[in-house]
Structures are given as structure tokens and as C-alpha cells.
């Protein structure tokens, strides 16, 4: 966990308790949005209603790639010069369907050092999948593209004040994935997720990441499930309980969930770094705002943070808030 976060003061039991608090907060809000989508519906029922809604459906892998590219291009154009500095080199972000053979999901590849190969957002889908529901994926495009990984990582590659290690290799999961989750939340704050379907997609993603904090840390430390959670209270976490929790308390695809449990067992600490990283980015921003008072400028905060390149979270906090 420390290698992935680079936090000198990380307390795993505190992180576990915070994970429960964050999960409860996001779950409560997701249920409120689900109620607006379909009164009386559970999260799963609201998700099913959105999956059946033609407004959120795309047919064919080529059409899905085009949808992804258009949404990414719109974000680049609208954020440039308003909320972020985006030089010409960063305006090229290619969106592609990944070749078969890898895991299912979206991921980002950084541009080459000279930007002759642009940053690329890849989406790995089953070969036989031709029908896509977009309400879950709007926030994923922002996570992998702009203002998420592409903005953060390509800014480092572009920044002349950084050395080659900082520009091309200085990446920790908590810093990078924490920023990408922060970017999803930021896009909501900026008004890009006002549609309830797309908003539920963002909350679904954050609920899933909060569940990771609970299950990963809980399993590896064999922690007790606290009272008031409505789930096997007083028992200690096992992989089977982790699987049950993810299947019943999130609306993530079942096959994905099963892969996730294996991931946590084989790579402890990586999955919680998303939400714990986001937590530190939010705390650093809030502390910087309190310190600067009326002089605080959000765009300048983002500019300063991104131009420093990748680093551990402890170092990030020291540099941003002192």
C-alpha cells in the first residue's frame, strides 16, 4: 500500500473506517438519484431502466468508438482556456477499441516524448459485444481523457522544467488514479454531469471505488465488519464475503466483480489507492483554499499541481499546502 501511495502517515484502519463512511455517503446519494430516475427503484432497477433507455444506447463497436471520440473532443474544446491550460500538443487524444486478448475496460497510454504518437484512450470490449449503454461511461471518458489521465500525464510529458524521469516514469497509482477520480468529481462540479443518468454512472464508479477500500483492506487485515452497515455485521472479511458485498451492494457487472476480487488478493493496496488518492487531492485543494483565502484560484491550483509531474501523495501534499 505504501509503495502505491507514498504516504508516510497512512493508517490502514483509519482508511478502512473512512472507506465505510465514503461508501455510505455515495450510496445514499446514488439512491436519491435512482429515485429521480425511477421512483421506488433500487440501484439495480434504476440501472436496468437506464440500460433500456434508447437515449443511452449505441449500437456497434465503430459507433461506440465514435461516441467516445466525440465526447472526448468536446471536453478538450470546452475545457481549453476556461478551466485548464491545454497546449496544441495535448489537443490530440485518440480514442480506440483495443485489440482482443486483454481485460475488459478502458485505459490510457501516454503520448511519446515528442508527441509524434498522441495520447490514446483504449477501450477493451468483448469481441462479440455490439450493444453499448453510455450512461455509465461518460465519467469514464473524463477519467481516462480530459481532465483525467490525459491532461495529467501528457502535461508531465510536455512540461520542460521536469527531467526525463519525472516526465516519463514518475507515476504512482495514488497520485494518478486519485487525480482521475478527482477529475470525475470536478466535471460534475463544472456542470458536465447534470443529466441524472450520467450522474448515476459517475456515482456508480465512485461507489465501486469506495467498496474497494473496504474490501481490499478488510480482507488483508481480516477486519471486522462494523455494526450499522447492513452486511454480515460482526463477521470478519473473507474473499467470499468480499465477492458477496461487491455483487449485492454495487451495480458493477458480475464478471468484472469476480475479476476484481482476484485482483485485490494478488495486488494488495492498488485498488484502494484510487479513492485514497482522490481523498488527498481534495484535502490538498481545501487546505490550499483555506490558506490563500480570497486569493485562491482553482485554475492556478490545478496548473501548479499538474506541472509538478508525478510523485507520491505525501510529497504532493507537502508541495501544495506546505
Keywords:
globular, three-stranded mixed sheet, mainly alpha, two-stranded antiparallel ribbon, 322 residues
What can you see in these coordinates?
By secondary structure, the protein is mostly helical. It has one domain (2-273). The chain is 58% helix and 7% strand. It is built from 14 helices and five strands. Strands 2-4-3 form a three-stranded mixed β-sheet.
Q: Specify the biggest β-sheet.
A: 3 strands, mixed
What class do helices, strands and sheet pairing give?
Answer: mainly alpha
Total count of helical runs of at least 4 residues: 14
Termini gap: 24 Å
Integer count of domains = 1
Residue share in helices? 55-70%
Overall spatial form:
globular
Radius of gyration: 19 Å
Beta content comes to 5-15%
What do the pLDDT scores average to? 94
- Give, in order, the helices and strands: HHHEHEEEEHHHHHHHHHH
- Strands ordered across the widest β-sheet: 2-4-3
Q: Can you summarize this structure?
A:
With 322 residues, the chain is mostly helical. The chain has helices at 2-5, 12-37, 43-52, 61-79, 138-144, 149-158, 164-168, 173-189, 196-221, 239-249, 254-266, 273-292, 298-307, 313-321, and strands spanning 57-59, 93-97, 105-109, 119-124, 131-133.
Write the topology of this structure.
Layout: H1 2-5, H2 12-37, H3 43-52, E1 57-59, H4 61-79, E2 93-97, E3 105-109, E4 119-124, E5 131-133, H5 138-144, H6 149-158, H7 164-168, H8 173-189, H9 196-221, H10 239-249, H11 254-266, H12 273-292, H13 298-307, H14 313-321
Parallel strand pairs: 2-4
Antiparallel strand pairs: 1-5, 3-4
Helix pairs in contact: 2-3, 2-9, 5-8, 8-12, 9-10, 9-12, 10-11, 12-14
